[in-house]
Amino acid sequence: MLNDTDKSHLPLVSIGVASYNNSKYIIATLESIISQSYRNIELIIVDDFSTDNSVEKINEFLKQVSIPFKFHINQKNEGVVNVCNKLLSLVQGTYYTLIGSDDVMLPNRIEIQLKIMISKGADMSFGRINVINDMGKIIEHSRNYECISEQTTEIIMTYSNLLEYNVVTAPTVMLKTTAVKSLNGYETKYDIEDLPLWISLASKKYKIVYLNELLVYYRIFAGSLSSKITTLLAHYFLIRNKINSFKFIDKFVVQLFWLFKLTGEQEFKDAYKYCQKGTFIYFYSYLNKNRIFHSFSYRLLKIVVSNRYVRNRYNKILLISL
């Protein structure tokens, strides 16, 4: 059993919490960590200059904690990517996982995930989430993506997979520390911390395993750090940067498919608010506010991406990209 009371032969797992203005939820997050069935864990918290009473609540909570912990407070707001790199620098465990300060782990999350990672020799694993609201009520039950089997399945994630869609549920990810440090941590040139790392791991052929297990309750509420459209846009800009070395026609085809994907999302009508003014994606998303233009552009793109030649070209790009 991985929850053996003798911890000396069990790998240390570091659990990092990125804290920012979540005083209402931070205690529930911390309680879900110290209540894990797997006991050889350390708790690491980095607060990114919260302006509410998160720091006071965390300090009070830590007075009662019996597991090893570290608490770092940023003297200015540094953003989520820098917070992740700070957490990584403090990690002592063989494996680690990061979680937001408003999410909740299931009690056996670490035990289940670590057992699979050890048995499969994995460098990264992820599972399923249930989405909850600010009151903790489930508003969306976890479901598998079409590309994932209903059975616990090994997935060797490739750049091609992630070019098509990101199936990784970030709050459930557990990583082998040496693998991430070999890539020098999280890329600071992007505004998102997770997807560039998944792509880098996949491109270096690190082993990524999916677990058909519910591991985390992921909270969404007004004012959350991330939203569907900002995540999609970040993915778009990341992919656009990654294909800079492609032939012009291949870059054009990939961007056509991504424009089609973005146009099909209801939230895209507000995308211009999150885009740099003067860029093509800004003007395109701004025009999409108009229902007539939105309908026309979506139908036109659908015709183009449904073309056999274009589809075959896109599939070929996915196969040979990395």
What does this structure look like?
The protein is of the alpha/beta class. The chain has twelve helices and ten strands. The chain has helices spanning 26-34, 54-62, 80-90, 109-120, 159-164, 177-182, 195-203, 228-242, 248-263, 280-287, 291-306, 308-320, and strands at 13-19, 41-47, 69-73, 95-100, 104-105, 124-132, 138-140, 153-154, 174-176, 208-219. Strands 1, 2, 3, 4, 5, 6, 7, 8, 9 and 10 form a ten-stranded mixed beta sheet that branches. Strand 2, helix 2 and strand 3 (69-73) form a beta-alpha-beta unit. Helix 8 packs antiparallel against helix 9 (248-263), helix 9 packs across helix 11 (291-306) and helix 9 crosses helix 12 (308-320). The protein is globular, with a radius of gyration of 21 Å. The model has no long low-confidence stretch (mean pLDDT 88).
Which descriptors would you attach to this protein?
single chain, 322 residues, alpha/beta, 10-stranded mixed beta sheet, 12 helices, 17% strand, globular
How far apart are the first and last residues' alpha carbons, in Å?
39 Å
Instruction: Return the string of H and E elements.
Output: EHEHEHEEHEEEHEHHEHHHHH
For the largest beta-sheet, the strand count, sense and barrel status come to: 10 strands, mixed
Shape: globular
Structural class: alpha/beta
Number of helices: 12
Mean pLDDT across residues: 88
What gyration radius follows from the Cα positions, in whole Å?
21 Å
- Provide the helix percentage: 40-55%
User: Could you tell me the strand content as a percent range?
Assistant: 15-25%
Give the tally of β-strands.
Answer: 10
Q: Enumerate the spans where pLDDT stays under 50 for 5 or more consecutive residues.
A: none
